[in-house]
Automatic annotation (TrEMBL):
Residues 2-113 form the VOC domain. It comes from the Bacteria. It comes from Patiriisocius hiemis. Transmembrane segments: none annotated. It holds the Pfam family Glyoxalase. This is VOC family protein. InterPro entries: Glyas_Bleomycin-R_OHBP_Dase, Glyas_Fos-R_dOase_dom, VOC_core.
Length: 125
């Protein structure tokens, strides 16, 4: 089994499109303002946005976008006006991360784990 795509809710798909293009995703489907799909710049995964009148305001999914250099990507995104909740942080689980929210309050993590993403030292054998 392979993860094909993740879809998140948005109250304004048109505005969300601009936000995700700033992050570096390539818009590949937008037939109406209730749905858009993007190609991630690396790998085969896609990411989509679907209109919802009401959003879940508690909890929800956390979306991780991996990049080779978190500090560099965060700097580039800040220059484009993207605001982060946290600065680039080396986490105890061997990942480097920076957290932000999209325009609809969905939590996004820009991160780098490298080999530790699938093979951390504590992986079950």
């Amino acid at each position: 089994m392979n993860l094909n795509q993740v879809t998140i809710p948005s109250k304004d798909v048109k505005k969300a499109i601009g936000f995700y293009q700033k992050l570096g995703l390539e818009l590949i489907v937008h037939t109406h303002d209730h749905y858009a799909r993007f190609l991630c710049p690396t790998g085969d995964a896609t990411f989509s946005i679907h209109y919802r009148e009401q959003l879940n305001t508690e909890g929800g999914a956390i979306i991780y976008f991996e990049v080779p250099d978190v500090a560099k990507k965060v700097k580039q995104l800040k220059e484009k006006g993207i605001t982060f909740m946290t600065e680039t942080t080396a986490q105890s689980w061997a990942w480097t991360e920076a957290k932000l929210k999209d325009l609809d309050g969905n939590t996004l993590i820009i991160y780098h784990a490298g080999e530790n993403r699938k093979n951390p030292p504590w992986r079950i054998q």
